[in-house]
Specification:
Beta-Lactamase; 15 helices; single chain; alpha+beta; binds adenosine-5'-diphosphate
Amino acid sequence: MTKRIFRSIFTVAMLVLISSLVIIFGILYGYYSDLQKTQLKSQTELAAKGVEAAGEKYFDALDAESFRITWIKDDGTVLFDSEGTPSEMENHLERAEIKQALATGYGESSRYSTTQMERVLYSAKRLSDGTVIRLSVTQLTVLNLIMSILQPILIIVFVAVVLSISLASGVSKKIVEPLNRLDLDAPAANKGYEEIMPLLRRLSNQQSQLTRQSAELRRKQDEFDTATKCMNEGLVLINETGEIVSVNRAALRCFGTDTELVGKNISALPPEAGLDKLLEKVKQDGNAEGKAEIHNLVYELSLSPVRSGDVDAGYALLIHDITEKDKAEQMRREFTANVSHELKTPLHSISGCAELIAGGMVKPEDIKDFASQIYSEAGRMIRLVDDIIKLSRLDEGVNTMQKTDVDLYALASDVVESLKNEAKAVNVKLSLTGESSVISGIPQLLSGIIFNLCDNAIKYNRKNGSVSINVKDSGNETVLTVSDTGIGIPAEHQERVFERFYRIDKSHSKEVGGTGLGLSIVKHSAKFHNARIELHSAVNIGTTIKVHFPKAADQDKT
Ligand code: ADP
């Protein structure tokens, strides 16, 4: 801008200089011409008087250096000429100044020389004898005039150019300087700039409009961020070129990264997500869904287009963690298969026995054995169905069951009482020690925990073995300990014995009337009471299972 202003001022200054010079030269030239003419006229008058008085002799003493003098007869013949030979000169009668002088007594004219470089002024006066005396002087042309004063002109032009440059540069800086000082953050607050006030006001209006719009945008962005932050589902917005525009926290969690993904291509996301294929599909079908396992978690991915008018402006990827659901579904499938399998065996056995009896193929003395087998298989089925019902109740949620204050020691005492005969039958000694400790819980579930642990401790014990049950109140938790001197659980199975239908030795379990569901019921019931299970076992030495029931407030959470 400074340069443009400088150029403009400099150009104007130069134009003013040139036009001033032209005008000055015009005036000078006119003045100079008039002066020459007047001088020539008075000299002609003098010369005429001289010739009138002295006749031809006047020319002898004449020193005509600054002008040319010619004496002409009334017929145009040249009688004398200060620069030429009269006999060689042509007749002057037709010359304008001569004609005029002969007619009026005085005449003047001007003519350009043959080279056009100079103009000659003529002044003629008629004498009393009818002859004409003519004086001529060479007048300088404008070019000659300029050439004659070229040096001072050049000095003037040089000074003017230097002055113009410094003036233009100073003025342009002075014009721009206040503009640079303008406070553009608050345009309307700038005072003393009347000329640009409308512009500043407009700027100020636009600025406040922009501020409002950006505040509105920020508010919307904040709303969007808050909403997406709170979402459990991952949300990724992708533009039409496959560049990530927005990622929420849940999505970052699912991709197992905390690096900034915005601005990156979807290829930066874990390949297990299979987004390339989903993107292809969504472009073809309008939406795409898929399932992916990322970092051992299972996700359901749903990609749908974000439309702006008639075109796809981008895509929204919704990621839903279905690991639990997936696991639950798989467990349900396995459970159904296991249940069918577990029920099939006793049913086949019952059906086989009954078929033999009905076909009269069993001797009367054997009927008793067959009947007791049917009874035992039916008992197994009943136990199995009972356990399945208990588990499915736990699966459905036990919100309907009310928690009450339960004395764990009293409950354990009842369980020990109910298992007394069973223990006696296999020569296992049952003993309960500890103290009364009240926790908040569901009596049926707590009783189930103690029963299953003690039942296993008896079932998987050795002859003349023992089972010790202890209830201990340590202030912030109540610990139930069931220890036995039985066969023990090998280390590699310790993690899995709590799974449904998991048995270390299936035939042994069946033999002792196990269903494979006891410890899963214990695990579920303990979880419901926020209790922690601890298992210590050594093969052929025994097993100790501890259940830690917290007494803290969160224990009441259902
Ligand atoms: P089950 O009905 O077969 O006893 P559980 O779920 O109660 O089913 O136990 C799972 C398996 O864990 C059992 O089959 C058994 O092999 C093992 N187990 C459980 N408790 C004990 C224990 N106290 N001592 C040794 N093994 C045990």
